[in-house]
Amino acid sequence: MRKSSPVVMDSLESRRLLSGSHFDGPEGEGRDGGDRRDGALFIPALPVAAGPVTTAAFTKVSADKVKVTADQATLKTDYQTLGTALKAAEVTLATPLAALQATADADEKANEAILKVDFTAIQTVYQKDGPAISADFKAISADLKAKNTVQLAIDQAKLVVDKATLATDLTVPKAKLSADSAAAEATEQADEKAIKDLLNTDAAVAAARLKLTSDQAVYTTDFNAFVADRTTYVLDLKTPLV
Known about the structure:
Layout: H1 6-18, H2 52-92, H3 94-146, H4 149-200, H5 203-236
């Protein structure tokens, strides 16, 4: 649950977005079945004797690729600008940021202690009920070896009861672990949001995020258009002379 620096988080997001891999299919192949030698922006070559329809489709998807490539370059610059703004804001807002980070660290430590108790409680149940179940399996194995069907039935019934006891005894500690885990996650997200909100009060950071959001929308629109037009072009390649 260790907090990540806002600069680090934005850097990771930028690498994922600009990798061009999110529309790729199986290894060596895109989702539309095309070669992936040029990543998500690969366009099959135009046949020498291609007809007007196929040529027009190729021209259109090629223009789309130019747009997407430009969008990626813009986003790269946007992320760099945001990263620079965040680093500067971390210096400018060092005092309140340190207070929020201290709160986040304290929350993390407290949650770790709570979850440790929860896991210990579950382990205690297994230590209490586990030996009876292990003994049941050993008894059943001996019954099978001795071909003692009467005792086998008794021991199998006892195993069912002991397993039910274990399940019942685990109900409360597992429910507490689940609730405490959800609460810890909510606290972590709130602490991260508080830090991000503070950094967003910096004018340069706010402006950089606004531009990034706008440019991401443009990129998504242009990339979707590229994928659709490439699909059309690939289908046209089945009858390239048209």
